[in-house]
Amino acid sequence: VQLQVSGGGLVQAGDSLRLSCAASPRTFSSSAMGWFRQAPGKEREFVASISWSGITTYYTDSVKGRFTISRKSALNTMYLQMNSLKPEDTAVYYCAARVTTVASRTLDDYVYWGQGTLVTVSS
Q: What does the pLDDT average to over 90-116?
């Protein structure tokens, strides 16, 4: 299983970024997926998740209304559109996949992980 993350970078507060997570077709076709992040000196935390169908999504409270998770089956890719970025969003962002179709907020429910991508938001 391979999850390839892209899209991080350095932006200013208020800017937008879109992260992408490309998965193998077999993984993407049967897995709920999620985004997590880890800030320096902190534990990895849940950001957003999406069910296999794309119908169910969850967000951590701090990103609601600013971030949007989505997935495009034709491209086997999941996205995280991040708007109105804040300095506190600075972290390494990871995508992850479950072995079931049900979205989850729990880190331990995810079996497969992509490499992280650094998002830095300057004030």
A: 96
